[in-house]
């Protein structure tokens, strides 16, 4: 393995990785030695050959679950066993990287490189999405100012600006102040780029024609006559497509052990659909025997959306589903505080396993038998690991494997890889969606809230009821739903850990993402623009001797 360069890169030249996958020089656009974009024509030349493995997790906790680390380590483990493997991951957002969570390129001996570049500006995809989104905002306000599209009601603008940063001060703002030459004053606000509809469009589009068709459909406002205003109405689609030209192409990098990795698209799973791009997943399936991907946060969020939105729309299917858990996280769900997780606590572990059980049940609801992976942390007690194993094998009756890919890289995940391969050989049935897109909106929301979360009741705020009437009137009621919910709990209350029962979910409003092709019910107090914590990760990042340091 090469020593890290000044940028932190310690992999092989990306051209070598592309050659190993059978990609020709004309198939790639190189971004230096460490990364490349792959042209979409590859999907026309290479048929699908691989099996798709989805990695998800229990409800996340501050103790950390290591889902991305496990995903990367599993790919490396498959390669260690002589298998052809490729990763398909999301791009990190600057918001959590500089906020509370830190970087999103794995950890320890299971990382993708160059980690510092991927976590920061990478190939500029997030910037292109931000620019396209804000161009549409600018054209919309310009049309109001010049009265180019008659009768737009400034009070009924649904389109918001975005930036790839956590900034609570921008959630609700007033634009157009300063007099008649500065615009028309109105309320507005910012979402984070990961929650932008254009991010979802970029991830779900099959190609340039599909991209343009989806951009055309973006609903941005209503007129005083209650008529919808779209991006097509504003003649915005052409320029937006031009800004997204290169961003549509999947990014090729590698793991620290040289396993190819497509890292493309970065929607969060709590406020968006939480999956990497369809095209990156298809490329991984076309270029390797095993494509390993992940879905954001717990299974009830990212993985549910993976199946019901991405997989249904793109006609994908999984051969195995891995559920990642840790003893530390299970004990937190059992009521143990973060500072006390190092102590042996079998009682809390048993109590916390209810959360794992619920997620395993959720996987089975899609007709997919789960594999439980216990991501081992230094200091884990053998008694606790043994208890989780016995519970999975004897009570849940599901395959189980311990992974130590953080410490050992691919070698630490070979048991998991063998378990996945064995399960994939036995799993011949296609997955079963949780709902039919043609069902009414409330039925779809109920099937997710009741089936995935365990809710006993759903309450719709007055605005949500108004939104439903508008959705039906406009003909958007046959779209799937992408519920925005806290990732910290199975409920819409982040304080309720473990496996809560007898709870109600409140839907505050329902947004229309017509271009992306789904509806977004907003539950609880979830925000589409996160805020920074008291001590953000940005305070730890610096440039020292030409190298970026402090990204965790």
What would you say this structure looks like, in words?
It is a single chain. This protein has 3 domains: 14-122 and 247-426, P-loop containing nucleotide triphosphate hydrolases (Rossmann fold, 3-Layer(aba) Sandwich), CATH 3.40.50.300; 125-243, Domain 2, N(10)-formyltetrahydrofolate synthetase (2-Layer Sandwich), CATH 3.30.1510; 441-523, Formyltetrahydrofolate synthetase, domain 3 (Roll), CATH 3.10.410. Helix content is 35%, strand content 20%. The chain has 18 helices and 24 strands. The strands form 6 sheets. Strands 1, 2, 3, 4, 5, 6, 14, 15, 16, 17, 18 and 19 form a 12-stranded mixed sheet that branches. Strands 7-12-13 form a 3-stranded antiparallel sheet, with helices on one face. Strands 20-21-22 form a 3-stranded mixed sheet. Helix 14 links the parallel strand 18 (370-375) and strand 19. The protein is globular. It starts with 13 loop residues before the first helix and ends with a strand. Mean pLDDT is 95; it is low at 1-6.
Task: Label this structure with key terms.
about 550 residues, alpha/beta, Rossmann fold, Domain 2, N(10)-formyltetrahydrofolate synthetase, 12-stranded mixed beta sheet, 3-stranded antiparallel beta sheet, 18 helices, disordered N terminus
Low-confidence stretches: 1-6
Architecture (CATH level 2) name of the largest domain: 3-Layer(aba) Sandwich
Strand content: 15-25%
According to CATH, what is the topology of the largest domain?
Rossmann fold
**CATH homologous superfamily annotation of the largest domain:** P-loop containing nucleotide triphosphate hydrolases
Q: Please give the CATH class of the largest domain.
A: Alpha Beta
């Amino acid at each position: 393995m090469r020593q890290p360069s000044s940028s932190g890169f310690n992999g092989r030249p990306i051209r070598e990785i592309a050659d190993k996958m059978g990609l020709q020089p004309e198939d790639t656009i190189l971004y230096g030695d460490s990364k490349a974009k792959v042209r979409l024509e590859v999907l026309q030349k290479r048929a699908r050959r691989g099996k798709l493995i989805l990695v998800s997790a229990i409800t996340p906790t501050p103790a950390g679950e290591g889902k991305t680390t496990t995903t990367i380590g599993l790919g490396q483990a498959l390669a260690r066993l002589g298998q052809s493997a490729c990763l398909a991951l999301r791009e990190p957002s600057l918001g959590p990287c500089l906020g509370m969570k830190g970087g999103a390129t794995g950890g320890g001996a299971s990382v993708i490189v160059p980690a510092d570049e991927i976590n920061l500006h990478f190939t500029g995809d997030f910037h292109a999405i931000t620019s396209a989104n804000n161009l549409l905002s600018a054209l919309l306000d310009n049309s109001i100012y010049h009265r180019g599209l008659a009768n737009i009601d400034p009070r009924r603008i649904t389109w918001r600006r975005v930036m790839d940063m956590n900034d609570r001060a921008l959630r609700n703002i007033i634009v157009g102040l300063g007099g008649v030459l500065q615009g028309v004053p109105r309320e507005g606000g910012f979402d984070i780029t990961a929650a932008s509809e254009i991010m979802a469009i970029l991830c779900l589009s099959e190609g340039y024609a599909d991209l343009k068709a989806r951009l055309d459909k973006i609903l941005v406002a209503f007129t005083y006559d209650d008529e919808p205003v779209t991006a097509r109405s504003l003649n915005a689609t052409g320029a937006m497509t031009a800004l997204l030209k290169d961003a549509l192409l999947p990014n090729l990098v590698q793991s620290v052990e040289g396993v190819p990795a497509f890292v493309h698209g970065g929607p969060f799973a709590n406020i968006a659909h939480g999956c990497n791009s369809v095209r990156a997943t298809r490329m991984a399936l076309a270029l390797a025997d095993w494509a390993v991907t992940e879905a954001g946060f717990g299974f009830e969020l990212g993985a549910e959306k993976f199946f019901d939105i991405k997989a249904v729309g793109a006609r994908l299917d999984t051969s195995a589903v891995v559920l990642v858990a840790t003893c530390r996280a299970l004990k937190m769900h059992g009521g143990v505080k973060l500072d006390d997780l190092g102590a042996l606590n079998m009682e809390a572990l048993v109590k916390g396993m209810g959360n794992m059980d619920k997620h395993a049940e959720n996987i089975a609801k899609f007709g997919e038998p789960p594999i439980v992976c216990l991501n081992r942390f230094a200091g884990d007690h053998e008694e606790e690991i043994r208890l989780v194993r016995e519970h999975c094998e004897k009570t849940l009756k599901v395959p189980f494997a311990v992974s130590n890919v953080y410490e050992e890289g691919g070698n630490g995940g070979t048991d998991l890889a063998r378990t996945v391969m064995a399960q994939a050989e036995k799993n011949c049935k296609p997955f079963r969606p949780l709902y039919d897109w043609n069902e009414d909106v409330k039925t779809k929301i109920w099937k997710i809230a009741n089936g995935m979360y365990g809710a006993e009741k759903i309450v719709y705020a007055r605005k949500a009821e108004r939104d439903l009437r508008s959705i039906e009137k406009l003909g958007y009621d046959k779209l799937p739903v992408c519920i925005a919910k806290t990732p910290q709990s199975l409920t819409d209350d982040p304080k309720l850990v473990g496996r809560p029962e007898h709870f109600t979910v409140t839907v505050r409003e329902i947004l229309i993402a017509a271009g992306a092709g789904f509806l977004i019910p907003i539950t609880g107090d979830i925000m589409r623009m996160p805020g920074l914590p008291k001590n953000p990760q940005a305070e730890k990042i610096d440039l020292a001797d030409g190298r970026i340091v402090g990204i965790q």
